User: What shape does this take?
Amino acid sequence: MRVMLITNPYATFTTAEGRDALANTLDSRFSVDVERTTHRGHAGELGAMAVRDGYDAVVVHGGDGSVNEVANGILGAPDADTPDSASLPALGVVPGGSANVFARALGVSRDPLAATAQLMTLLDSGARRPISLGHTLNRWFLFNAGMGMDAIVVRRMEELRHKGRRATAGRYLRTTVGSFFRPSVTPPSFTVEVPDHEPVEGVRFGFVSNTGPWTYLGTRAIRTNPGTDFEHGLGIFAATSVSVPRNIVLGSKLLRGVEPTAKHVFRDDDVEWVRFRSDKPADVQMDGDYLGEYTSLDFGHRRHVLDVVAPPLGS
Assistant: This one.
């Protein structure tokens, strides 16, 4: 089996020793080529190269942003013809970022050593599990994309990282709470459309999910759409208020794992498409990476488009 190992030396929780140990462990059993990313977009270039060169699997040791890039490189743009997933390299992940939402949603251990042991067993058995993905802006997303307040939080976190601050769970929580309390942070409102429902007007922040946990705070899964998973349609979570008291109540429900219902929230857990429309440019994030400001987003969904090296459903 030919395996390309893509490592991101700038990922939050990777070390040179850990990357070398992973490479040596994989190389003890498979034919492994190690590639280290050097610039933004490089992981996507390597994913496309893995397809051209006929690799059986691509293993990513990094954060969600690196995994997203590799998946987009393997699949190509959503508006192009996508090959059958069985003809493409399978995608495996050894967590190396701060949240590792995609890997953990797949059932991969958050501990890199345990994740490596899982990966070796699955690669040995030849296991491949097809999953569905969402897409917008002609890019695939693995677990979620959002407009409004959550994207503002991602933008502020990236600003902090550029200043040398680490992206810890506590810092995410403080940045989120601080964004709601800052009067200068006022995302423009937008409209959300989904099939068979009247448009939802005046939305201040909205998430479109491709799987269950929206994110994690340490060991705690935050589930905005508990009925959404890799086997069904998209989940939509849209809030029409940034009121601190109303969202503190909502946030407490999310933290406690209680059904996240509220009068200012619209949710659906299995839709084929979603549209966001705004009169003014609003902040947008995808899989935890800030993308900039947009006035419109069209979200689609494609079933079983990517094979992953991950534990089977229900394990």
